[in-house]
Structures are given as structure tokens and as C-alpha cells.
């Protein structure tokens, strides 16, 4: 009985030591991938510029209110889709289980939002420069949302 207790305490000490080593390694790896404050700030700035410029363009556009609603809904849908996609891709890379349905919905939502914007802009009665403006500000917003999501998650993992 005493031998069993010694074995248990020895195995517990070994597990604790290996866990500490593993946590130190993970912490060191996390610190290496910590986003710089400048990169984080620029990501937030790009997201703000993209969304605000897109919305100002919508506000000033001489299009029907239903068209404005369509384009506004598309940016909300696109932002949600890319954040969901980024989360599911990151979860897969980190070994966190992700259902294939959620992963697929993230991809389909992202592609659908971009395709719907493209179809809407091709058929819109706008000048080519207006169409380009909406396309660029939309893509800037989507890219910045992915970057902000990555930074938020990295910083959250480091602060744990």
C-alpha cells in the first residue's frame, strides 16, 4: 500500500513537471506570435476606415433605399462570415474540434457575400469609380475583420 502511494506521488510529480514544461513551451511559443501593438492598431484602423467609408458611400449614394439596405446587409453578412470562417480555420489548426457543417457554412457565407456584392455592383447603375469604391472598401473591411479577429484571439491566448 505504501509502495502504491509512493508510485502515485511519483507519477503525479512527473505529470506536474511535464505539464509545467509543456505550459512553458506553449507560453514561449505564444509570446513569439504576439502581435505588435502597431499591427493591432493598424488592423483596427483599417477595419474602421473600411466600414466607415463603405457606410458613408452608401449614405451619399443616389440609389434606392432598398439598394442601400441590400449593400448594408451584405457588409454585415460578410463581416460575420469572415470572422466565423477565421475562427473555424484557427480552431482546426489548434486541434479544437470544428464541425464540418460550421466550417462549410463559413466558406459558403464568405463566398456568397463576395459573389452577391459582385452581382449587385455589376448590375447597379453607378459609375465605374463608385463600383470600384464599394468593392475596395468591402474587401478592406473583410480583410481587416480577419486580421482583428486573429489579433484578438492571439492576445486572449497570451493573457490566459
UniProtKB/TrEMBL annotation:
For the keyword Transmembrane, the answer is: yes
Keywords attached to this Swiss-Prot or TrEMBL record, sorted alphabetically, are: Membrane, Transmembrane, Transmembrane helix
Q: Name one Pfam family in it.
A: YiaAB
Instruction: Spell out the InterPro entries in the cross-references.
Output: YiaA-like, YiaAB
Q: Membrane spanning segments where?
A: 38-59, 71-89, 101-121
Its Gene Ontology cellular component terms are: plasma membrane
Q: Where is the composition biased (Basic and acidic residues)?
A: 1-10
Disordered: region residues: 1-26
Q: Which GO BP terms sit in this record?
A: DNA damage response
YiaAB two helix domain location is 39-91, 102-154
Protein name, entry field: Uncharacterized membrane protein YiaA
Give the source species.
Answer: Myroides marinus
Amino acid at each position: 500500500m505504501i509502495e502504491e502511494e509512493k508510485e502515485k506521488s511519483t507519477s503525479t510529480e512527473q505529470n506536474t513537471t511535464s505539464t509545467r514544461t509543456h505550459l512553458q513551451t506553449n507560453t514561449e511559443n505564444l509570446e513569439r506570435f504576439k502581435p505588435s501593438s502597431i499591427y493591432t492598431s493598424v488592423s483596427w484602423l483599417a477595419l474602421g476606415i473600411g466600414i466607415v467609408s463603405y457606410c458613408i458611400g452608401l449614405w451619399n449614394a443616389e440609389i434606392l433605399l432598398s439598394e442601400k439596405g441590400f449593400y448594408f446587409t451584405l457588409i454585415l453578412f460578410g463581416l460575420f462570415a469572415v470572422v466565423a470562417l477565421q475562427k473555424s480555420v484557427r480552431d482546426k489548426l489548434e486541434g479544437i474540434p470544428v464541425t464540418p457543417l460550421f466550417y462549410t457554412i463559413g466558406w459558403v457565407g464568405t463566398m456568397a457575400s463576395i459573389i452577391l456584392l459582385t452581382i449587385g455592383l455589376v448590375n447597379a447603375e453607378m459609375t465605374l469609380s463608385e463600383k470600384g469604391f464599394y468593392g475596395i472598401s468591402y474587401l478592406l473591411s473583410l480583410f481587416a475583420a480577419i486580421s482583428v479577429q486573429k489579433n484578438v484571439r492571439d492576445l486572449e491566448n497570451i493573457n490566459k
